[in-house]
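[09:14] KT: can someone run the structure on this one? pasting the chain below
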Amino acid sequence: MKNQDYTTTIVVDQSPETAFNCIKDFRAWWSEELKGPTDQRNETFLYRYKDIHFCKIQLIEKLENKRLVYRVVENEFNLNFIEDKTEWVDTQLIFDIANEDGKTTVSFTHKGLTPEEECYDMCKEGWTQYIKTSLYNLITTGKGAPNPKDKEGFNDELVEKWELN
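[09:31] RB: done, C-alpha cells below
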C-alpha cells in the first residue's frame, strides 16, 4: 500500500480571501507561542509547545487566496515514545483553497506525515483538532482556539539555537 499523507478538509461559507488570511495567521488558530512572521514568503518562524515540541517553519509558496505551503526546516520532539526526534524535518504543511458554488473548501495536507511515522496518531489527532475546530472557527466566527502562550515562553538561547532569520 502506498504511503498516505495526513489530509483533512473543511468547507465554509466565507470567501477564499477570508480563509487565506486566517490560515496564514497561525497565532490565531495553532499557537500563540510563535516567534517570527507566518505570512511572509521565504521567512521562517519558530513554534514551541511547552518543552515537548519545537520546530522552525518556512513559508515556501504563497498563491494569494489559493495556496500556502510551509516547509518544516528543523524539528525536535521531546517525547519518550518517539525515537526520531526530527521526524517532521523536510515535511510540508500544505493549504489548498478552492471556491465552488459559493462555498470555500480548505484542504490541509501534512506531506510526509504518514501512518508509518512514530508521531502519526498523536499528530493526526492534533491536526484534526486545529484544522477542523480551531481554524474552522477562526474562519467562520473570527475566533480560533490556539494553544495559549506558555509562561516559560521563548528565551534568547532557544531563539539563537534555532537561528531565527
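[09:33] KT: thanks! The mean pLDDT is 91.
[09:34] RB: yep, looked fine to me
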